[in-house]
Amino acid sequence: MSNPLHAQHYADHAHQCRAAILENVCLAESTYRVRLHCPAIAARILPGQFVMLHLTGADDPLLGRPLALYDTVLDASGAAVAVDIVYLVVGKMTSRLAQLSTGGQVDLWGPLGNGFPPQSTRHLIMVAGGIGQTPFRALAQECLGNRRYGDPQREVSQVERVTLCYGARSEGSLADVEQFEAIGVVVNISTEDGSRGHHGLVTEVLGKLLASGFQDARLVCCGPEPMMEAVAGQAAAVGLPCHVSLETPMACGIGICFSCVARVRDKDGDWDYKRTCVEGPVFDAEKIVW
Ligand SMILES: Cc1cc2nc3c(=O)[nH]c(=O)nc-3n(C[C@H](O)[C@H](O)[C@H](O)COP(=O)(O)OP(=O)(O)OC[C@H]3O[C@@H](n4cnc5c(N)ncnc54)[C@H](O)[C@@H]3O)c2cc1C
Ligand code: FES
Fold first, then answer.
1. Is the pTM of this model over 0.90?
2. CA 137 to CA 145: how far, in whole Å?
């Protein structure tokens, strides 16, 4: 059995492919969803895993960029043939990607990283800040029993309810809220300027939700680091398990360069640097040294 902490594992198990762009659409302010035809990756990828995306033929940026699986796309026979990626335009790669259209190509390798571990609880609470909602769409689909992922497809026990606490600067930055609702997710919105939902921070929305008394629940969180730290504290205060998906900048994505390390506690209470690309990006929130 190969070791996912070694780069060789990815040489054996991850696929590199040139993927055709099936569509590239704007969802919200500076936020796009690109659909990429890559059956070998789509068939294997799990919620919380990511791909490295490189612009075909580009030497600037030279390195690929990590992007989370948003969801897979099925063909008429039910086979996963494409992946959807939702991305925020922040720099060179994402601004060039936003200019590509149907028929264009990009280079992809994946699936990479560990993904969200299956856990059986009655409720799943997903907390997203900014573009941090991207790893949660496939997770919600899986936990609600709408879809299965992986090859062989993994078994996950269904939850009764999935709630997304989704915080953004303003209404214009919120992406795909209706799509989350359409698959059965209860969405609680907050915006910093009060243009939609709660006027304030997503941690305030989460605080209210937790105060309403959740017992058999677990949290997952993705977004800016101070937000994830606060959510980890809120989960610990009410004794609920919480996993965070870190968005540490990455160079290789397969464990070679150590550019992506985070400080993670071991079982003795000491901490060590762990590579987010191979030991994460999903970590038990209690183990992170913020
Ligand atoms: C596992 C993982 C999954 C990710 N999934 C998504 C996703 O689904 N959608 C999405 O939009 N983004 C995601 N990201 C973040 C994405 O990889 C970066 O935004 C990427 O660097 C953008 O490339 P760029 O060339 O456009 O910008 P760059 O030129 O790389 O960066 C532009 C600016 O953003 C800063 N920056 C870059 N990366 C980060 C980071 N991770 N955290 C804070 N600041 C950063 C840089 O310092 C620079 O100032 C993910 C990151 C990781 C590690
Ligand atoms: S990105 Fe190179 S070791 Fe993680």
1. yes
2. 13
Q: Where are the alpha helices (DSSP H) in 58-135?
A: 92-99
Whether 66 is in the pocket of ligand 1, judged by its Cβ within 6 Å, is yes
Centroid of ligand 2 to alpha carbon of 7 (angstroms)? 10
Tokens of 258: 């150590």
The structure tokens listed for 269 are 């209470």
Which CATH code for domain 7-112?
A: 2.40.30.10
Q: Give the SS3 label for residue 229.
A: helix
pLDDT by position in tens, the chain (length 290)? 566 666 666 656 789 999 999 999 999 999 999 999 999 999 999 999 999 999 999 888 999 999 999 999 999 999 999 999 999 999 999 999 999 999 999 999 999 999 999 888 999 999 999 999 999 999 999 999 999 999 999 999 999 999 999 999 999 999 999 999 999 999 999 999 999 999 999 999 999 999 988 779 999 999 999 999 999 999 999 999 999 999 999 999 999 999 999 999 998 889 999 999 999 999 999 999 99
The candidate with the shortest Cα–Cα distance to 231, out of 209, 215, 264, is 209
Per CATH, which fold does 123-287 belong to? Rossmann fold (3.40.50)
Domain 7-112 shares a fold with domain 123-287:
no
Q: How many CB atoms are closer than 10 A to CB 272?
A: 10
- Ligand 1 near 105 CB (within 6 A): no
Report how far ligand 2's centroid is from the alpha carbon of 45 (Å).
Answer: 19
Domain boundaries, the chain: 7-112, 123-287
Structure tokens at 212: 């309403």
